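Input record (one chain):
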Amino acid sequence: NADYKVKAPGVKDELGNDSCESSINGFSFKGRDVTPPKFVISAFSNAANENDIIIIAVSNEELIRVPTLTIYHGTASPKTLTMQKNETNPLAFMSAASLKASNGQSGTLKVEGEDLNGNKGSDTDSFVIANVKTSSNQRLASADEQFSLSFDENSLKADATVKILKRNIVKDENATGTIRTALQNEYAVMRGLRASVTTKDEVTTNAELTPLTDAYEAAIPSSKVNKGVIASMKVPESASQTTGLGLFYQKNGSWKFISSNITAEKEIKARITSSQIFAIMRDSVAPTIKLDESVDLSKAFETARPEFVGIIKDFGSGIDTNSVEAKI
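The corresponding structure, as predicted from the sequence alone:
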């Protein structure tokens, strides 16, 4: 709501008379904010209860009051909750919700808020939930069909509530280049969790990887898993070149390689036995090789079988051991 003044100095008439700054009073007016607040929303599974999710929302500006969260889930009536404000970050908010898989497989989370000038904004997120029975063949897919979980008669040893939660991926533009899911740090702070410290190797891993998809959390209670579940992610259509593509899962401050085998259906699959967060990334950095510098190559060898020692490192998808060979 700042004050503004519009002036037009340097205007000439047809005879060339030039106006000057001092001769123009200009037009003064008070500006008004008419832009609604923007929100980022992420849902996280609750390890303590397989039916619960934790929703974090962050606004890009101060709000007149805490925002509301409305849950739309299948046959259930919409449920509106007042979110909880973060005491250390006035733009971050949290809410918990208990879901019933019997209400339907898919649902929508809508956060609504109003800024100090009365502009109302909102954003939505989706979730997928199902009660998977033992000894049954069942497929559960994300709302956009890009990620799915396939169960067979040996997957579970007890009925389980399974969720798929989609989150954006953010790569920090700083020295560490940390790759994290949206609002991951805010979630840790508001839940009182201990933040992980990025190690030197994890920084190198982050530098070698470029995310190509959103992240998908497969929330499966590990205590109910028998021989595992097949997780499948579609290779994005935007990836015209498949060289260097791989499926990765998040571990602490880094991402670990799983597989680069692309099926005829343009998917990458993996068998999992616990909750994991997945994304397809491109590793475009070649391994580094460093030989032992203590060997003096300027002198003739005194043995018929000289030994060369070195280290091969790769922090992205790892080393293909079948490709390692030495040539003299």
